[in-house]
Amino acid sequence: MAVPKPRDPHAVTEPSVLDAQVAEVFAVQPESLKDEYLQLDQAHMLLRDALQEN
Fold first, then answer.
1. Is the CB of residue 18 less than 8 Å from the CB of residue 46?
2. Measuring CA to CA, which residue among 13, 22, 53, 20 is closest to residue 40?
3. What mean pLDDT comes out for the span 40-53?
4. Against a cut of 0.85, is the pTM above it?
5. Beta carbons within 10 angstroms of residue 46's beta carbon
């Protein structure tokens, strides 16, 4: 059984890094409604993960 490791409270995503990641997601023009959904879902996951770090 794996032992949980404490997270480093100082190792959080910098806002500029998050901004670049989100911009990369939205740089691609979705070709269908499904592609747009997947794009929005990916951006949401990035934001959610960044917020849970703090």
1. yes
2. 22
3. 93
4. no
5. 17
